[in-house]
Amino acid sequence: MSAGWFRRRFLPGEPLPAPRPPGPRASPVPYRRPRFLRGSSSSPGAADASRRPDSRPVRSPARGRTLPWNAGYAEIINAEKSEFNEDQAACGKLCIRRCEFGAEEEWLTLCPEEVSSYPAAPWWVRGQLGKSGHYWALFDGHGGPAAAILAANTLHSCLRRQLEAVVEGLVATQPPMHLNGRCICPSDPQFVEEKGIRAEDLVIGALESAFQECDEVIGRELEASGQVGGCTALVAVSLQGKLYVANAGDSRAILVRRDEIRPLSFEFTPETERQRIQQLAFVYPELLAGEFTRLEFPRRLKGDDLGQKVLFRDHHMSGWSYKRVEKSDLKYPLIHGQGRQARLLGTLAVSRGLGDHQLRVLDTNIQLKPFLLSVPQVTVLDVGQLELQEDDVVVMATDGLWDVLSNEQVAWLVRSFLPGNQEDPHRFLKLAQMLIHSTQGKEDSPTEEGQVSYDDVSVFVIPLHSQGQESSGH
Amino acid sequence: MSAGWFRRRFLPGEPLPAPRPPGPRASPVPYRRPRFLRGSSSSPGAADASRRPDSRPVRSPARGRTLPWNAGYAEIINAEKSEFNEDQAACGKLCIRRCEFGAEEEWLTLCPEEVSSYPAAPWWVRGQLGKSGHYWALFDGHGGPAAAILAANTLHSCLRRQLEAVVEGLVATQPPMHLNGRCICPSDPQFVEEKGIRAEDLVIGALESAFQECDEVIGRELEASGQVGGCTALVAVSLQGKLYVANAGDSRAILVRRDEIRPLSFEFTPETERQRIQQLAFVYPELLAGEFTRLEFPRRLKGDDLGQKVLFRDHHMSGWSYKRVEKSDLKYPLIHGQGRQARLLGTLAVSRGLGDHQLRVLDTNIQLKPFLLSVPQVTVLDVGQLELQEDDVVVMATDGLWDVLSNEQVAWLVRSFLPGNQEDPHRFLKLAQMLIHSTQGKEDSPTEEGQVSYDDVSVFVIPLHSQGQESSGH
């Protein structure tokens, strides 16, 4: 994604501002230099911040970094907005084990080294509790790569902690009212049944809490290191035969099958969350410090509009009406611009994500964080219920892809490429590469009028069928 | 709909509490005794509060009141919870005329007397601007019928005012940035185009504003007369070839065609709006006065649960998690109960509607109004784009119907009845009657296990096809 006045291009080789030592107001959490994803094909892996020693950051090549992770094929391109890619990715095996009392078991490991030991069964079958699941994540940074890097190194650990905390509920046939399984009221199971609470609701809750926890970690770490920035987050998790897609920001995941295109996420931007954002400014007008107007108009108003009746929308309206323009309506709008150009407080193009705790409107003290949510929306794909075909895939990508390719165009590329390349062990990787290259204005690109993406672009292609797994060349 | 402690049954003939004269805190708006809908088949019509002199209230018969309105067929049954039906309906022709400068034209009339002068064209063709549209409304009262009666007498006038205010925008090809059509910026039309603002957005805005205005009128009138109560509101408006359905509460409208069942509204209850309501209590904890807990649990907690980890949800969660029970969690939950039994603050079964300005939790000073929205959600059915069949209808009904009949069961009844009765000029009325009777536990009822509705029930059947209009016997 892109953020208004963050669009500074760092020249190749130009160093990022050095992290400042923690100041007197810094958090007591010690600063850990963020580790970068190692991107070469010979060393796939996502760092587990809580377990593995720090490694030297490896600068990602400017273009065409290839991350052939296990059970998912990533292609990432850096638009050179900064020396380090503002897009970051993480991916790995996800093992959750039930912890017996007193036993010191690992709860969750992201252990790409174990790829070669994978059994032949497809990941969604193996993704049973006590066996392995998978985790894929894309983070699109703004204001520098710091938040995206922290998120790539941290979020899976937060998710592990949150899943650990409810694992007794996950392994039960039905989540018990009390985590220890003790029944205080004889009809407790009936209450849980009536509320329709299933194990998948605990995973959704864990993802929601993990995003919030990660946001707090990023806030502390950035403050401690004197860095700034934020990022979007799109996460897919396979567990117990289901694929959970959690999204906070403007990345997107879709399911592509022979006869179906199904969105698995929805974008959160100042436009899609207009009413929530206006509502907050209505409840807390002091957040705008008298500098912005809460109301939406088709364009920014000027002196000539004073006294006229113009189109407007307020927080309670999904339709439009007319109002007589007063002087206060001439202020800069809380949400302004259209489509890709829409900005929250003239600054940010997304309304959910991680980080941005210090972000203020340029030359003011107006904070953006109160308007941002770190909570994702989670959708659940019951993979076990699908009659999977060999070429069924999930495509996850940052907005750099979706700005120039529609869901239909991506599906067309998937369906054009995969059936003719079923023997190629690298076909999913090549598909991810092709999707990226289709955003670069090549002649054979399916984009309208050869549209080109000038943004960072990251793509995961996740095969759903076991055949995809077997032919992946591992 | 029903409201927890409002479920007092008034005995037939027992008078309602007499309205008190306005006290010192009464609104300056003079109290007008509400007029009741005249329900006999010989005098169909909806009163226009702003134009017609008050008429003596006519008590609705306890059961089986028949309202064969023009272009819509209503059947209303009173569950005798009060002497007057808590369900109220309004329906009529809707004429909007463009007011030329200086001309004293009527802008909108609800004029059922003109039914016989209807041309043969279907209502949705005639519903062009400058010609007539239609208005149907169902109001389901709680705490007495006062709010529902006021809404039935008032809302269409509010809608008229709101549509009047934007009529210049409605008649333009595209709503102009400035209501007077003057172009201050040469690219103003382009700004409006880019925002995708169409005439239908002005109708949606007018409906949203009309509901709010009506809510304010009800608040003033009830306060002035010392009465209390609230109501849900479900409104359908035909205009310019489209059907707008605005809903605030738990009534429902569906489109039934030969091969399609399409919901045209969505219910607003403490369950469906849980996150919005919890969010408000999070922002303004003082609204709960220390008496309620914002959190949701599968059941109300008690002393034995203290210190245990139990399932819970907070405002930011769509999933569930576990928390350790503290003393404050033992308070009564902000939203409690399940399905039909779910209550906001232990009191109210809906989260949107009109009125309830004085409603407080029993024996406390805790107000419900801050948690209620009067804003409807509006859906638009582009009738002109449908290839209409003769038996395509819209069914609007209060929750008394939907509590015992599913959308599919209603559609089954529609499809079973209409094709065999195409010659019957009263078939839509009979269908409405049959739908009502199906909620009364008759042997041939399609409801599961002979379910019976003990609530008031009101049904509109609106034929969409011109044939339905022609065969209606007018």
From TrEMBL, chains A, B:
Residues in PPM-type phosphatase domain copies: 115-464
Superkingdom of origin: Eukaryota
Membrane-crossing segments per the record: none
Extent of Pro residues compositional bias: 14-27
Annotated segments matching region Disordered: 1-64
Low complexity: bias regions: 38-48
Molecular function GO terms recorded: [pyruvate dehydrogenase (acetyl-transferring)]-phosphatase activity
UniProt feature, compositional bias: Basic residues: 1-10
Protein name, UniProt field: Protein phosphatase, Mg2+/Mn2+ dependent 1M
